[in-house]
Amino acid sequence: MPDPKSLKVDDRVRFIALPDEWERPGYQLPKESLAFMKAMIKRTWSSRVYMIDEYGTPWIEARMRQRGRYVHHSWGILESTGWRKVVRRS
């Protein structure tokens, strides 16, 4: 499993499945987070890490269309499953 703390700014990630951590007993998840992650999994392109916060958490931004408007989202990658780092071709 990849460690999210190993990501750096400008790394690219792709979400491929719902995180295993979300299946743990007692884990509570807002329905908006589930909907966001399902939309990210459906995407065919990767997302760029734009920031690492003071706790070492990598953050991505996503622009999605909802009800005919674009909505901007930020997402901190805390889970070690459900995503993979995209290796650029040379």
Low-confidence stretches: none
Tally of separate helices: 1
Measured as a percent range, the helix fraction is: 10-25%
Largest sheet: 5 strands, antiparallel
Structural class: mainly beta
As laid out across the biggest beta sheet, the strand order is 4-3-2-1-5
User: How many beta strands in the DSSP annotation?
Assistant: 5
Write down the overall geometry.
globular
Order of helices and strands: EHEEEE
Rounded mean pLDDT is 92
What gyration radius follows from the Cα positions, in whole Å? 13 Å
> What is the count of structural domains?
1
Strand content: 25-35%
Amino- and carboxy-terminal Cα gap: 24 Å
Structure commentary:
With 90 residues, the chain is mostly beta strands. The protein has one domain. The protein is 13% helix and 34% strand. It is built from 1 helix and 5 strands, in the order βαββββ. It has one helix spanning 31-42, and strands at 12-15, 47-52, 58-66, 69-76, 83-86. A 5-stranded antiparallel beta sheet has the order 4-3-2-1-5. A hairpin with a 5-residue loop joins strand 2 and strand 3. The longest helix has 12 residues, at 31-42. It starts with 11 loop residues before the first strand and ends with a strand. The mean pLDDT is 92.
